């Protein structure tokens, strides 16, 4: 047994009440070994400082600036996938989406063209997948909650090399870019829309707790939190579109009615249009949550809707995935149905009852960034390729739960170029 009692919350009402009042994620013991101490696992004052540093990088004003990179990356992705087009072979799409997300995020957060090799991106992606597996094991194994036992466990299981691999790329990027940004910063007047690296320079000048190591960890934790979750959602969405051909056709028509074959997507296209595609993405988030579980420590006594009292000092496992698949909320929760996210269906449920980005002070700061970048990635792929798959349906046994839901079958997609004239 673990050192503290654990309570599991799986209903929207309970989760919502609790998360809105409680900001202590209590991941510190587990994740500091992998990724230092920064936004994901910081507590109290230090977490507030991390959040203040990071929030502006995901404001609507900044996201507007990221569209060039989103477009550039998605065209590059379509080009890479040409290798598999019209071959009849299936490609596991997850790795391509993940690498594209990593490259895009680096460019957006540094505000500069990427100076990272494909191999470095590949290595980070592989290490991240293994680390997420390790962190999930830590969260769901109460006997590992002790700091000392967890350190010994990591050493005995040979994880130290993996930790080094995960930390290498973000540390390199921050070191290189901070140096450049320091010079740039001195020569610039105030500008409210700076990239994250510029904000880091500013933070360093005002607050000595923002050491270079801490900033490397902030960057690493952003890269870890965002890239795989978005890639998982885009992979599952493409798989669903490949299985549900009628839905794919509707999505394709929605895209082609809006943009030409070579047009870049604008923020207006993505924010105010392509609503049906967004329904598909949100329904996929609900059924295959990229962050299916999170953990808190109750800081004070909490009273739930049915008057259940949660005492201070308990560990709370928040089962986001179970709440999102509750039959009290969705008529047929285990059937993939984009109509669950029509305007009318959303209006019939409590506000913010779709918990994929969580709620409360520690909810995802980049939900908007995630949705827009995934929408663009999928719209770009579907306007160029027809997708199909050997998988007829994803059954519960085909899935596994780590931090997020993953497919044991991978994400095999067959690509057929829609317009043969395009190169
Ligand atoms: C589909 C994509 C994504 C999903 C489903 C997702 C989901 C979540 C969830 C559920 C949480 C809160 C967990 C909790 O309450 O304990 C969270 C937090 C977080 N997410 Fe996301 N996320 C996604 C993409 C991103 C992206 C693209 C980034 C950044 C590049 C990002 C950065 C973060 C950070 C930094 C936190 C921690 C916030 C804090 O502790 O204050 N996420 N995310």
Automatic annotation (TrEMBL):
UniProt binding sites for heme: 364
Species of the source: Maconellicoccus hirsutus
Keywords of this entry: Heme, Iron, Metal-binding, Monooxygenase, Oxidoreductase
InterPro entries, per the entry: Cyt_P450 (IPR001128), Cyt_P450_CS (IPR017972), Cyt_P450_E_grp-I (IPR002401), Cyt_P450_sf (IPR036396), Cytochrome_P450_Monoox (IPR050196)
Cofactor: heme
Keyword Iron: yes
Name of the molecule in the record: Cytochrome P450 4461J4
SUPFAM superfamilies found in the cross-reference section: Cytochrome P450
Membership in a protein family: Belongs to the cytochrome P450 family.
GO molecular function per UniProt: heme binding; iron ion binding; monooxygenase activity; oxidoreductase activity, acting on paired donors, with incorporation or reduction of molecular oxygen
Gene3D superfamilies cross-referenced by the UniProt entry: Cytochrome P450
PROSITE patterns: CYTOCHROME_P450
Pfam family, one: p450
Domain of life assignment: Eukaryota
